[in-house]
Design brief:
2 domains, alpha+beta, about 300 residues, four-stranded antiparallel β-sheet, Rieske Iron-sulfur Protein, three-stranded antiparallel β-sheet
Length: about 300
Amino acid sequence: MSPSSRTRSPLEPAVSALESASFLDPAAKKIAKNARETIPDGAVKDALSGTWLGHALHPMLTDVVIGAFMSATLLDLFGGRDSDTASERLLAIGIAAYGPTAITGVNDWADTEPADDGVRRVGLVHAAANAVALSMYVGSLAARRRGASKRGKLLSLGGTAVMGAAGYLGGHLTFAQGVGPDQTVFDRGPTEWTPAVDASQLPEGRPTRVVVDETPVLVLRDGSSVYAIHDRCSHRGCSLSEGAVEGEEIVCPCHGSRFDRRDGSLKLGPATVPQPAFQVREREGRIELRRLDPNAAA
């Protein structure tokens, strides 16, 4: 069987149709816009994005919610009568953890949806499905506490089915549509000295975008010094060369992340990882660069 003849997953056509569902756009755009306006930049934004953690916070929190709800359902199926109290406690834990998890997810999605129609649409349905699952788990807990154990277990089982569908869409957002991963991770730039641009073409004090072996690089001349960092913002892929230079920092034009122009280190989120940086030299009127090893001794 040739690689091109791979059998498609039965879920792929459904996701493709969802990515094309333009009727979702008005509601999705409004929700995302409200989220961006509501979540303040700075410490709150960085906390929700995971800047302090070194990677996105949302996936880690989903483990708490999914783990609690799934464990409750498994106890319902296999735990026997003595597990009823434990199931109720697990449902309560999942419900309590849902709020912070949802807020971090909305934060990540709202930053990304303007640039990708598919992300906008899949993200909205992912969130809606999770909300439906939550309502079923809340109903399950309420039913159990009224003594309607059978109804509570059925609601929990239904919630798990809906949560599974939502989780599939969440995985698609992350692994197929790239919401969350470092946008430079598979393209960090050349490790050997490589010509980048004629020195005469570099304006003073203004970021310039060049492509070096298919890697976009921001190059900045400041007097006799020349700096270079990856031009694709690690956060959501915006071009840093379209941003501003403020002191020693490059400011992303999309979400305001700040990176040190000298070594790409992260100074302010919502980005969570630094930019790949490059050593720079001038030879025979040409600027050459190679990737800077962040672990190398100074």
